[in-house]
Amino acid sequence: MAARSVCRAGSAAGRALLWGPRPSAALLTLTRKRHAATYAQALQNVPETQVTTLENGLRVASEESNQPTCTVGLWIEAGSRYEDAKTNGAGFFMEHMAFKGTKKRPGLAFEKEVESLGAHLNGYTSREQTAFYIKALSKDMPKVVELLGDLVQNCALEDSQIEKERGVILQELKEMDSNLADVTFDYLHATAYQGTALAHTVEGTTENIKRLTRADLISYIDTHFKAPRMVLAAAGGISHRELVDAAKQHFTGAPFTYKRDSVPALARCRFTGSEIRARDDALPLAHIALAVEGPGWADPDNVVLNVANAIIGRYDHSFGGGKNQSSRLAALAVEHNLCHSFEPFNTSYSDTGLFGFHFVSDPLSIDDMMFCAQGEWMRLCTSTTESEVTRAKNYLRNAMVAQLDGTTRVCENIGSHLLHYGRRIPLEEWDARISAVDARMVRDVCSKYIYDKCPAVAAVGPIEQLLDYNRIRSAMYWIRL
Hints:
It is a single chain. This protein is α+β, with helices and mostly antiparallel strands and 481 residues long. The protein folds into two domains: 48-252, CATH 3.30.830.10; 275-475, CATH 3.30.830.10. It has helices at residues 2-19, 25-35, 39-44, 90-97, 109-116, 141-153, 159-176, 180-192, 206-211, 214-224, 240-250, 301-312, 328-336, 366-382, 386-401, 407-421, 427-435, 439-449, 469-474, and strands at residues 49-53, 59-64, 69-76, 120-125, 130-137, 230-236, 275-279, 286-294, 315-316, 341-348, 353-361, 456-461. The longest helix is centred in the N-terminal third of the chain and has 18 residues, at 2-19. The protein is globular.
């Protein structure tokens, strides 16, 4: 009986809500606007990025929000491009050693202190930058800054830990050899930038990892971990003033007394149109990457090339949609079973880049897939339509707004931008650049970088059907009568 009474009471309340006085249309509109921000509002409501440069050259940048957590990290202008043939792999080795204790926190004490905060510590090394970052509760930001400062200034580099980590890295190198996509991109860099520092792999060679000593790692740190080459970035529920105060307190050691004139110059890496083929008929699928030289980070042509890549689209055989996909190349891949997957890329560095595509296909489909992919490049240079550009720009806007999700992505965005551009470019500015792109710009910029250019080619696996380089080169232009 009691239950039925409750049900009746609930039903009565429901009828009262249903048939009672209805709110006005203006009130409904106001309510909807309160809960769902428009795209323009989302861009305008992004907090300002505050940047302070300390006397030693360290840049401190942050974006404050109401998040209960924060991500604080160091982005350093150092990577495999700053190594020579003998020291290649030192940066990757150093990344591993950074988490193995400091002079103040020996052994596992560093990791235990991070865990006691309930924090998450991570890092990575690429060809032009190294990063260490910690995600923690906002109230622990000063402690996180102290830990990061200790990590880069007082890394213990104990001989026993070096030998232990040497074995771990050698095992990682063996595992990386089984990732054919990564192997293909390493080969692509090796052939595109042969004889230069960008040809090096990030992880280094097996011979180098076996040979690197504690003195080599110390020399790498002393040479590259300088204040003017670092950005201390933070995002989340933190105060910029408190972040700057913490940085002044904990980033004052010997590495942070150097001035900018002590930073070594970056050597120019020249692009070469050539190829590397690693044929292995025992493998089931072929990995092919083709690229031309693209622009560096700060070049405005990057926005147009990203629109072009969005027009090409990407495909994986696990995708739905079949041959009705908006990407013409994806529709062809489905209709004629050309590949298992493909993806365009635009990889930028300080003064150069690689603009191209990578695909995975059966051995007997390589020629057809390459023909269709290069044909799509030629179509971008000659026949891009406004409807395609509109769709691609909307795709880029969606990817851009996705950068707002999570303090870690925002923090990485801040750190990378200050290293690459010298400032954090606001989303409104990116949106304006994207909006300015039209079909004619896509055709002109693609012609500038793609049309009648010598590509770099890397191929791994059962690649007997991959045509001769001269045939691939001849497909980089159309003979139009």
